[in-house]
UniProtKB/TrEMBL annotation:
UniProt-listed Pfam families: DUF1801, OmdA
InterPro entries to which the protein is assigned, alphabetical: YdhG-like
Domain YdhG-like per the UniProt entry, residue ranges: 20-110
Protein name according to UniProt: YdhG-like domain-containing protein
Length: 199
């Protein structure tokens, strides 16, 4: 029996206009292929459970993502660093495989879970990436001692999230806006993606 989670409805409703039809389509395909699927929210975005983790979907500012938990066993793919998931940046329904192809992946994922096949262990990087703090962020943190204390207490990955967000800004105006927002959030002890950490 299909299990609908109202938090998934809320997640879709608060997603950007372009993302809503993509998320609704993915949800419908998963439910059609796997009537016993259960919906939940993990790590702030929708997951579909069938005898364990099966797949998930997420929406971002300009794209969506679809992720299969055991993708390495379902398909040949190289990790896409531009987007979470195996299908790259999904900006419209045209960016998705056909319903038939998606259904086949879902059926394969179900079989793996039916058979109790574990997800392959993911190799850890040989060495951690160096953390580079942009000069603007370092200067702003120096002027805000409360933010500096929180930032220093963050894990390297949380520090990197802020550093990359500032560094990737294309214009000075965007960089300044992000910097101001970052200092405000950091002073409150919030990570860059704090909005998605709680349901």
């Amino acid at each position: 029996m299909t299990t609908i989670d109202s938090r998934v409805d809320a997640y879709i409703a608060k997603s950007a206009d372009f993302a809503q039809p993509i998320l609704e389509h993915l949800r419908a395909v998963v439910h059609a292929a796997c009537p016993e699927v259960e919906e939940t929210i993990k790590w702030g975005f929708p997951h579909f459970m069938y005898k364990g983790m099966m797949c998930s979907m997420a929406s971002f500012k300009a794209h969506c993502a679809l992720n299969f938990w055991k993708a390495e066993l379902l398909m040949a793919y190289e990790a896409n660093r531009e987007a979470m998931g195996q299908f790259g940046r999904i900006a419209s329904l045209k960016d998705l495989p056909s319903k038939k192809v998606l259904t086949a992946y879902i059926k394969q994922a179900m079989k793996l879970n039916d058979d109790g096949v574990a997800a392959p262990a993911r190799a850890k990087p040989a060495e951690a990436r160096a953390l580079t703090i942009p000069d603007e962020l370092a200067a702003a943190l120096k002027q805000a001692p409360a933010a500096r204390r929180h930032f220093d207490a963050f894990s390297p990955s949380k520090q990197r999230d802020y550093a990359e967000w500032i560094a990737e800004a294309k214009t000075e105006a965007t960089r300044n806006r992000r910097l101001e927002q970052a200092i405000e959030w950091i002073a409150e002890g919030k990570s860059r993606n704090w909005k998605y950490e709680k349901c």
